[in-house]
């Protein structure tokens, strides 16, 4: 099983926290990308997502958690920036922990299922 958003096999974890409030691989990857690039626009480009879509997901996360997960700074000569807040870092860490534990717990059954497929080395 591979890791994170580029997963080609394995489970994809989507946590439904309450009706209409979910956190899954796409939002987690966006938070990761913002953390790495320091920019919502760059994170969106990296994920082949429009700035409008990336910003919409961030607004949704901020609203759903009742506190900003991403803090932004205004543009200007050196352009703006974005960083994860303490809450944003905590949400991402908790999601990644659940994702890792899920992968570990299903690994044996996952490989057993793979072996039942044709053309998979046994």
**CATH homologous superfamily - what is it?**
Winged helix-like DNA-binding domain superfamily/Winged helix DNA-binding domain
Sequence stretches where pLDDT stays below 50 over 5 or more residues = none
What is the approximate shape? Answer: elongated
SSE sequence, one letter per element: EEHHHEEH
Number of strands: 4
Based on secondary structure, the structural category is alpha+beta
- Number of domain modules: 1
How is this structure best described in words?
- By secondary structure, this protein is an alpha+beta fold.
- It has one domain (16-115): Arc Repressor Mutant, subunit A, CATH 1.10.10.10.
- 53% of the residues lie in helices and 12% in strands.
- It contains 4 helices and 4 strands.
- It has helices at residues 25-37, 40-46, 51-65, 86-115, and strands spanning 15-18, 21-23, 70-73, 81-84.
- The strands form 2 sheets. It has a two-stranded antiparallel sheet with strand order 1-2. It has a two-stranded antiparallel ribbon with strand order 3-4.
- The longest helix has 30 residues, at 86-115.
- It is elongated, with a radius of gyration of 17 Å.
């Amino acid at each position: 099983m591979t890791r994170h958003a580029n997963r080609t096999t394995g489970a994809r974890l989507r946590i439904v926290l309450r009706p209409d409030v979910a956190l899954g691989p796409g939002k987690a990857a966006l938070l990761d990308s913002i953390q790495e690039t320091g920019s919502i626009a760059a994170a969106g480009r990296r994920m082949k997502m429009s700035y409008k879509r990336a910003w919409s997901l961030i607004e949704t996360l901020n609203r759903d958690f009742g506190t900003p997960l991403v803090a932004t700074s205004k543009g200007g000569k050196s352009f703006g920036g974005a960083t994860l807040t303490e809450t944003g870092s905590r949400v991402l860490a908790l999601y990644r922990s659940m994702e890792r534990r899920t992968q570990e717990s299903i690994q044996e059954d996952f490989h057993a299922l793979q072996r039942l497929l044709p053309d998979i080395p046994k």
